[in-house]
Amino acid sequence: MKVSYYPGCSLEETARPYDVSAQKVCRRLEIELEEVPDWCCCGSSPALKMDRLLSASLAARNLVQMEKQQLDQVVIPCPFCYRRLLSAQTELGTDTSLKARVEDVIESKVRGELNIHSLLGFLRYQVGLEAIRAQVARPLHQLRVLPYYGCYLVKPGGVTRFDDPENPVSLDELLAALGAEVLDWDFKTECCGAGLALSKTETVVALTRRLVREAVRRGADALVVACQLCQSNLDLRQDEISQAEGQSYALPIVYFTQLMGLAFGMSAAELGLKHHLVNPLPMLKEKRLAS
Amino acid sequence: MYRLKGTPEERHFMTDVIHRSGQNLLECLQCGRCTASCPISSSTVGGPRRLIAQILCGMREDALRDPTWWYCVSCGTCASRCPVEINMYHVATTLCEMAEKAGIEPIEPSIHLFEDLFLRSVRRYGRVRELKTVMRYNLQMRQPFKDAGKGLRLILKGAISPLGMMRGGRKDEVIERIFARRAAVGQGETDHEG
User: Which of A3, A99, A117, A157 is deepest in the core (most CB within 10 A)?
Assistant: First the structure.
């Protein structure tokens, strides 16, 4: 199966482990990822906040590039890019005056008939658990994980629609198919502070602190994410969290694609697991999932 | 909550926000589920319920200077839980555009600076250069060593490249043209309809 692949800016730079592990896992599942030619930033939260027409235009430019690939299915690992491109396609489809202005700005026509999937939703629902289970060579028994979806994948309800906005289950099911022990908690879609990482770091610490504390209290070996912004906010702020809590925290924050790769028999090194600030390797070695 | 008996200016502001954002704030029950759910509401950041109340009461100056919409990360939690399905990040965009058009200084300069530097990077390179943007931000905030220890540890792990802080890459003329054409259309002509 060949699909259009839109990595987004972060996966080129600070979130390379997500890109690398996603590519390896998809190859193993015989999904060919064809990168969108000359893709650009989706505008992310700054354009969405400051300039609606610019945000819609940047998104539309990417939709046009995807339409040129003639692959029908689009797969996007970054939850923000995913939600923005999907919601922009919907907005352009319902708001003809916006569409006219956007097409004037980007000097191209947008068809707006793409099937846009998040990587998580695509693997869970299009590829399916059976195909994933068939590749598991090293079940993640003994690994107690907490799935953390964050916001953009599932909220607001009615925008992305592939899973429930309050109690999503796709990641739970996928991790269970890998053999992991999936724990339950109330913080699946609680915000990590997202784009305030730099400008309001104290807000991010206050928000991630609750998540890390609760995850450790529940006995999780790792928190599993599908978003590079969640990953970095949770991974990078554990020094500050430890200081605020008066207790030392070192909770590994890993991408679900990294755990898929491990379960498929790939090595921790090739999946970029050495690149996180909180090193997951000692825990993985203890569980005999890495050497 | 809303007052149809307000002055024409007050009512005009309210209908303007409703029209541009596409969000029917007149249906707001002031129930407060949004603010109770909002990750950025705090003792200093009022949150969506209060912001809607300001708009409904025609308090233009207060609403355009409210930190809530600067802090908004568009998580969509308020929209998911609102009984009348008001999406506040569309309202945030509307207020941001109106405040800029009115020449009101950003009440949250650090958030504004980051978002502005982010878009400058996109305009130049077509994609945001994250590390370069982080470095620019920390320099302009006069905190060049913020998170420097973490950065160094990530460099030593091979997670990020120190070259990334300098590297820009080729300019993207197509995206620069999109930014220029958008600017030529002018601000404040982007009414939401849905």
Answer: A117
Q: Which of B129, B154, B174 sits opposite A277 (nearest CB)?
A: B154
Distance (Å, whole) CA A96 – CA B34: 30
Buried b / exposed e over B118-137, threshold 16 CB at 10 Å, is: bbebbbbbbbbbbbbbbbbb
pLDDT of residue B4: 63
Which pLDDT score, from 0 to 100, does residue B41 have?
97
Assigned architecture for domain A2-120: Up-down Bundle (1.20)
Q: Among A36, A39, A50, which would you mutate to test the B interface (most chain B Cβ atoms within 10 Å of its Cβ)? A: A50
Instruction: Return d(Cα A252, Cα A272) in angstroms, integer.
Output: 13
Chain B contact set for A148 (CB, 8 A): none
The complex scores an ipTM of 0.96
Rounded to the nearest angstrom, the minimum Cα separation between A126 and chain B is 25
Q: pLDDT tens digits, residue range A128-168? A: 999 999 999 999 999 999 999 999 999 998 999 999 999 99
Tokens of A132: 């994933």
CA separation, residue A166 to residues A58, A150, A153 (Å): 29, 10, 11
Contact A41 B189 (CB under 8 A): no
Chain A CB contacts of B114 below 8 Å? 46, 195, 198-199
Query: pLDDT tens, A185-243?
Result: 999 999 999 999 999 999 999 999 999 999 999 999 999 999 999 999 999 999 999 99
Helix axis angle for A52-69 and B173-185, nearest 10°, is 140
A85: helix, coil or strand? helix
Closest CA to A120 of A170, A179, A192, A181: A170
B33, B74, B138, best to mutate vs chain A, most A CBs in 10 Å: B74
This prediction has a pTM of 0.96
Q: Are residues B121 and B150 in the same domain?
A: yes
CB A18 within 8 A of CB A225: no
Alpha helices in chain B (DSSP H): 8-21, 33-37, 48-56, 60-64, 67-71, 77-81, 88-101, 109-125, 130-140, 148-156, 173-185
Q: Which CATH architecture has domain A137-286?
A: 3-Layer(aba) Sandwich (3.40)
**A-B C-beta contacts closer than 8 Å:** 191
Minimal C-alpha gap between B140 and chain A (Å): 12
Q: Which residue of B has its CA nearest to A153?
A: B75
Distance CA A262, CA A281 (A): 12
Q: Which one-letter amino acid corresponds to residue B189?
A: E
